[in-house]
Structures are given as structure tokens and as C-alpha cells.
Specification:
11 helices; Rossmann fold; binds nicotinamide-adenine-dinucleotide
Length: 310
């Protein structure tokens, strides 16, 4: 359990039975997560497990219930696998609350937006957050994979406090987080974000410029699109493409399985943003990807993509 010192700026954050570190939390104790899909649920879990108080928002009660179940199940699995004790699991659950009203985010020190990869939807959320979050030095972050952070920053009256904090899927397991300052982001915001993500959440951070795709997706998306093109043109079966990279290059997961895990709508949206930014043919989404998205075959989260899932 976190223990507070007198001034409230220092606390002991217990990541697991094995690690115990004392760190300044840079004034971040109350986190808000907007969106409780694959990424929002994972980010909320990471924050709650690290001792932060987390409020999670979704669009409807139904979406909230689906997200809450995803989160509770994930924490339960982590406890079953011995990644955290039952006590820690219960303590993390106690730190989590849920809402469908962004107005409840008034007292948040840090908000991480993790809704669908759609510029208009994200921009509107940043406008609302700007209105409702009252703490003057609150950090407003986006988990976007490809949308220019500066566009979200200038939608607010505090563009110096907006930054990209890009987690990887599944967030409780993947160690990397990309930090993406916009042209407008202040040095203080960057330092505090780096501190919270690195020291409190225990992630490895890398910095990237505000260019669509940042570091990892700029390398990964052309690879995934190439695999989809290869499958579409009939060069090899989906299994052979995936086995080729798993058994031939020791990748833990082949590209079509990975695209299913990420979500084909997300892969398509990220590719579109990167294509819009660079006009490079290697970022152009192949027609099959778009047709699968149109058909609702979004990958693992929808039960069907390149593979089917129970
Ligand atoms: N899937 C990945 O592997 C991955 C990895 C890193 C970053 N990202 C990024 O994270 C973000 C979310 O991706 P995801 O995979 O979790 O998508 P997802 O489809 O699993 O979840 C998106 C969630 O956002 C919710 N939502 C939509 N509009 C909302 C609103 N106005 N307010 C609150 N909630 C709203 C939806 O109900 C849904 O639950 C995207 O920006 C994506 O690019 C995804």
C-alpha cells in the first residue's frame, strides 16, 4: 500500500513484493483515464497497481461495464499468475472508480485519453477536459498512436500541458512507453510526465518527435501492411506468413496475429494518419484491411479478424 509523508509529495510505491521504491510523484496522485477499451483498461490497471487513484470514463453504462469486466479479469489473471498478491489485487481494485461523466475529472492531476483513433473524437475530448479539469498544472495526455499531438494541444487553452504518453498492448505487460512532446509542450510537463511514467509506473520511456507513428509504429505499421498485402495477393496462407516470422525470425507473434491483437480498425487508422502525414505508399492501407474493418472483423476484440477467437 502507498504510504504518504507529511507533505504529500513523497510516497512509497509498491510495484510488487519484489520492488519497493520511494519517489516523488511530481504531484500526480489522481489519474483519469478516458476510454476503457483494450488500452484504457490496461493503462488504468497499470496506474492502480502503482498506487495511484484512478477514475475511468466511458461513453455509456454498457461500455463501462464491458471495460470494468475486462479490467477486473486482467487483475484477477495477474493475481492467479503470481504477478501480484491477492491483497495487492484488492487494493488496486479499491483505487479504481468508474464514470460516464467527464465532469467528474475536475480534480485529476493527470488525464490519459485512450479512446478510438479518431482525430475529431479526441479533439472534442480535449476541449471538454480543458473545461472541466480545474487543477492549473494538470497534465492532459493522449495515448494516440499517430494523431499529431499539437492538434490536440491547440484545442485546449493550455497547450504547454498536453503531451503524448503512448503505452503498448497489453499495457500491464509491455515495458515501453513513448513520450511525445508537441511543439507547444512545456519542459515542466515533459519532466513530470517522464517522472510519473518512469518512476511511478515503472516503465521504460523513449522520447519521439511529434511525427505520425512516432518510433515504434513508424517501423511496425509498414511491416504489418506488407504482411496483409502478401496475404491479399495470395503469396502465402495466413498461417505460413505468421509461422514464417515466428519460427524464422523468433518473433513472439506473427504479423497477422499481431494486427488482430492491435485491432484492425486501429491499424487502419494509424496507417491512414501516417499516409496523410508522409504520402509514402508503404503507409497506404491495402484494400483488404479496409474491407475487414467495414465488415466489423476488427480482430481479437471483435472475435474475428484474420483468425477467429472464442
Ligand atoms: N490497440 C493497440 O495495440 C494500441 C496500442 C497503443 C496505442 N493505441 C491507441 O490507444 C487508443 C485506444 O485504442 P484501443 O485499442 O484501446 O481501442 P478500443 O477500440 O479497444 O477502445 C476504445 C474505447 O474508447 C471508447 N470511447 C470512444 N469514444 C469515447 C468517448 N468520447 N469517451 C470515452 N470513451 C470513448 C470506446 O467505447 C472504446 O471502449 C487509440 O488511440 C489507439 O491508437 C492502441
Amino acid at each position: 500500500m502507498p504510504s504518504h509523508t507529511g507533505d504529500g509529495l513523497l510516497r512509497t510505491v509498491k510495484f510488487s513484493e519484489r520492488h519497493e521504491v520511494t519517489e516523488s510523484v511530481a504531484g500526480v496522485e489522481r489519474v483519469g483515464v478516458v476510454g476503457c477499451g483494450q488500452m484504457g483498461a490496461g493503462i488504468a490497471e497499470v496506474c492502480a497497481r502503482s498506487g495511484l487513484e484512478v477514475l475511468v470514463a466511458e461513453t455509456t453504462g454498457e461500455a463501462l461495464e464491458i471495460g470494468r469486466t475486462r479490467l477486473v479479469n486482467s487483475l484477477g489473471k495477474a493475481a492467479d499468475r503470481g504477478k501480484l498478491s491477492r491483497q495487492e489485487c484488492d487494493a488496486a481494485l479499491e483505487r479504481l472508480t468508474f464514470t460516464t461523466d467527464l465532469g467528474d475529472f475536475a480534480d485529476r492531476d493527470l488525464v490519459i485519453e485512450a479512446v478510438i483513433e479518431n482525430e475529431q473524437v479526441k479533439t472534442e475530448i480535449f476541449q471538454v477536459l480543458d473545461q472541466v479539469v480545474t487543477r492549473p498544472d494538470a497534465i492532459l495526455a493522449s495515448n494516440t498512436s499517430s494523431i499529431p499531438l499539437v492538434k490536440l494541444a491547440v484545442a485546449t487553452s493550455r497547450p504547454d500541458q498536453v503531451i503524448g504518453i503512448h503505452f503498448f498492448n497489453p499495457a500491464p505487460i509491455q515495458r515501453l512507453v513513448e513520450l511525445i512532446p508537441a511543439l507547444t509542450t512545456g519542459e515542466e510537463t515533459i519532466k513530470r510526465a517522464e517522472h510519473v511514467v518512469g518512476q511511478v509506473l515503472g516503465k521504460h520511456t523513449i522520447r519521439a518527435q511529434d511525427r505520425s507513428g512516432f518510433v515504434v509504429n513508424a517501423l511496425l505499421i509498414p511491416y504489418l501492411l506488407s504482411a496483409i498485402r502478401m496475404f491479399e495477393s495470395g503469396i502465402a496462407s495466413r498461417e505460413d506468413i505468421d509461422n514464417g516470422m515466428e519460427l524464422g525470425c523468433a518473433h513472439p507473434m506473427g504479423p497477422l496475429k499481431l494486427a488482430d491483437l492491435i485491432g484492425l480498425d486501429t491499424v487502419a487508422s494509424v496507417a491512414d494518419s501516417m499516409y496523410t502525414e508522409f504520402k509514402e505508399p508503404l503507409y497506404a492501407a491495402p484494400p483488404l484491411l479496409q474491407r475487414m474493418v467495414d465488415a466489423g472483423r476488427l480482430g481479437r476484440k471483435a472475435g474475428a479478424g484474420f483468425y477467429t477467437y472464442s
